[in-house]
Structures are given as structure tokens and as C-alpha cells.
Specification:
About 40% of the residues lie in helices and about 15% in strands. It is an alpha/beta fold. The protein has 2 domains: about 140 residues, Aspartate Aminotransferase, domain 1; about 240 residues, Aspartate Aminotransferase, domain 2 (3-Layer(aba) Sandwich). The chain has a 7-stranded mixed beta sheet with strand order 2-8-7-6-5-3-4, sandwiched between helices. Strands 9-12-11 form a 3-stranded antiparallel beta sheet. Strands 1-10 form a two-stranded parallel sheet. Helix 4 packs parallel to helix 10.
């Protein structure tokens, strides 16, 4: 065998999201792009805001010494300062640049954190359903993912979390708004979680980190606001990217932020910076750092996504689908009327591409990424209706 057994196993278990996306590419070649309704990948078709385009064009034209040069591994000081100022306003805490590390997207940030924190065999709680790559990220750094169920409406199940946190637990990954459910955890639930973590720290005599993965935090609906994770736990680390709120996933730009009162902040940021270097990220892209520094708080037009959410939720409910209306992100996670893989394959016969729930640790559901053009939504509705009628 030329590749490692571990990588071979991971490839066999790898993301259903990418698998369905690749099958979709083949289907589009056979049938034509306009005949395929692809809801497989959270790849927004919405263009970035005009302010992003203007900032990028201005930066490219501006003469800046060493514009494309190496920089401190943690990121450009002026960019970290701009983000610290923004976070200070948003969370009513005093952030300094030393609390910020610029990263290659949220995925880069998560790997840097797990590399810096985990001892071999330590455990990280992931809430089911979860973004599939979490498990691989954790295993990348010698850890073990421990799935913990959520409630029937995908809300936090504090009793299950109480049982899931053990003597080897090091951290919990929270994803709100959630991929794949769109659930936003409310303030009361988060404060209860913070109380639970504090109690568990006392019982276990070890620190527990709360890693909050929030790339969809600005994509929320119906006047909802994502509560501050920093208000509930001092060992909180926020992870985000601008892939979704600025609609620039291919630019791989994000950051992580430490709670300003986290114990050992200096040593931790040094470890995170070291991890960024040795994992090969080195530093986040120079141009993108400079562009997003002036765009904190800017996002795409969220109503564009909300209209698609409302159209799909209403139509699918009328067809008989059971689903929880998402409060954020751009995913639906309906129940499957039969085995989720069988149903996803049935949808594929109607040229509709979705992702089985088993890929998110939740068999019996399937994910619809509605960050697509209106023609895709409208064109898929007859197929969704016929697939449900077959099994209803």
C-alpha cells in the first residue's frame, strides 16, 4: 500500500458533501447544468458586497511597501487591531490585538486550536448533527471526537452534555448558526452550558475550552442575534471566517479570538501562532487580511437567503416533509421519509442533489444547501414533490 492506512480509512469515510458535489459535476456533464438542481455544497452563488469589490480594487492599485511579503505569523498588526476594536464593540469586552490570530478560514483556525490544545487521546465534544470535517480535524491532532446528541429540535441537550463530558474531555465545539440545521442556540441555553462547563471544571479539576465556530453568525433571520459566547465561559475561543458573510469562500480568510480574560492568554496565543506556522498555513493571505480589516460588520444581503428559506420551508411542508425552520445559515435539514441514503438517491433520479444526514452523524435526515439561484429552487420543487409522494 502506498498511502497510510489511516488516510485510506479517512478517505473511505470522507465527507458526503464533497462526494455528492462530485457526483453532481458528472450529472451536469451528462444532462446539462440547467437540468440539474444542486443543493449539495454550501458554496454561495451570491456575489460579494460592492464594498468588498471596491476595497479590493483600491488595495490592488495602492502602492504599499512589501504588500505581498511575509508578515508576523499571527497576522498583520493593523488588521488584528481593527478586528480587536470591532469585537470590543460587539461583545462589550476589551479585546487587544494579542487576542486575535488571522487564519486561513475557519478550518485553518480550528486546526490551529486543536494542534495547540490537544494531548494524545484527549476528547472533544461535537454536537450531533455536526460539520463532518470536525472529526477529521480532531483526529489530525491526536484527539478523539465524542458525538453528543441534541434535542428533537436540534437545541442543546444539557443532560446529554453532562453525561458526555468526562475525565479526558478537553474542549467542546459549538457551531451556531449550525451547519447543517440552521439552529441558533439562544442566550439562556448558552448560559446554562457555561454553568455546566464551570461545574465540570470543578469536578474534573481540569480546564474545559469552548470553541465557538461562527462563520454564519451574520446570516441570521427574523431579527435573531447570535448571543456572545464570551458572556458564558472565560475559556471561550471564537472562530470565524468571511467565506459566508462576504461570500468569498475561495479566499480562505478568517480569524480566531481568545476571551480577553482567558487564563494564560500569552502562552496560548504563542502556541496558536507556532501551530499556524508548523501546520504550514504560515500566515493568512496578505491581500485578504488588508481587505477585510475595513469590512468588519459588513455582510451580503441576508434577505436574499431568507426569501429562499421561506419559499422552501413552505413548499416542502405542504408536500409533507417534516423540518425545523432554520434561524440562520443557509441549510435545511428535513427528516427523510425512508433511509436517508435511499431517499437522497431517489432525489438524484430527479436531478436533485442533496447530502444524506449520515454524513453529519444524523441518519434519517438530509441536508439542502439553499445558497443557490432561484431557478434551482423552483426547478427542484416538482422533483421534491414526486420523491415524497413515492414514499409518503
Amino acid at each position: 500500500m502506498t498511502i497510510s492506512a489511516k488516510v485510506k480509512q479517512c478517505m473511505e469515510e470522507s465527507s458526503w458533501i464533497r462526494r455528492m458535489f462530485e457526483e453532481g459535476c458528472a450529472l451536469k456533464e451528462r444532462c446539462g447544468v440547467d437540468k440539474v438542481f444542486d443543493f449539495s455544497l454550501g458554496n454561495p452563488c451570491l456575489e460579494p458586497p460592492l464594498r468588498f469589490q471596491q476595497a479590493l480594487e483600491a488595495l490592488v492599485q495602492k502602492k504599499i511597501p512589501a504588500k505581498h511579503a511575509y508578515m508576523p505569523n499571527a497576522g498583520l498588526p493593523e488588521v488584528r487591531a481593527a478586528i480587536a476594536e470591532y469585537l470590543s464593540r460587539e461583545h462589550n469586552l476589551r479585546f487587544d490585538p494579542c487576542h486575535i490570530l488571522m487564519t486561513c478560514g475557519a478550518g485553518g483556525a480550528l486546526n490551529v486550536i486543536l494542534k495547540a490544545l490537544l494531548e494524545p487521546g484527549e476528547e472533544v465534544i461535537v454536537l450531533v448533527p455536526y460539520f463532518p470535517e470536525y472529526r477529521f480535524y480532531i483526529e489530525n491532532h491526536g484527539g478523539r471526537a465524542v458525538p453528543v446528541p441534541t434535542g428533537s429540535d436540534f437545541s442543546l441537550d444539557l443532560e446529554a452534555l453532562d453525561r458526555g463530558i468526562g475525565k479526558r474531555t478537553k474542549a467542546l465545539i459549538l457551531n451556531s448558526p449550525n451547519n447543517p440545521t440552521g439552529r441558533v442556540y439562544d442566550s439562556a441555553s448558552l448560559h446554562a452550558l457555561g454553568d455546566l462547563l464551570a461545574r465540570k471544571e470543578r469536578e474534573l479539576s481540569r480546564p474545559l475550552y469552548l470553541i465557538s465556530d461562527e462563520p454564519y453568525a451574520r446570516l441570521v433571520y427574523d431579527g435573531i442575534r447570535v448571543p456572545s459566547v464570551f458572556a458564558v465561559h472565560r475559556r471561550a475561543i471564537l472562530v470565524t471566517s468571511h467565506s459566508k458573510d462576504l461570500s468569498i469562500p475561495g479566499e480562505r480568510i478568517g480569524y480566531l479570538a481568545l476571551h480577553p480574560q482567558i487564563e494564560g492568554a500569552g502562552e496560548l496565543i504563542s502556541a496558536l501562532t507556532f501551530a499556524q506556522r508548523v501546520l504550514g498555513f504560515v500566515n493568512a493571505p496578505a491581500l485578504m487580511q488588508r481587505v477585510v480589516a475595513g469590512l468588519q460588520g459588513v455582510s451580503v444581503e441576508v434577505g436574499w437567503y431568507q426569501r429562499k428559506r421561506d419559499r422552501l420551508c413552505q413548499a416542502l411542508a405542504e408536500m409533507g416533509y417534516s423540518l425545523v425552520k432554520p434561524e440562520g445559515a443557509f441549510y435545511l435539514f428535513p427528516r427523510s421519509p425512508v433511509d436517508d441514503l435511499i431517499f437522497v438517491q431517489e432525489l438524484q433520479r430527479h436531478n436533485i442533489l442533496t447530502v444524506p444526514g449520515r454524513g453529519f452523524g444524523a441518519p434519517g435526515y438530509f441536508r439542502i444547501a439553499f445558497c443557490v439561484e432561484d431557478r434551482v429552487v423552483e426547478g427542484a420543487l416538482p422533483g421534491f414533490a414526486e420523491a415524497m409522494a413515492k414514499y409518503r
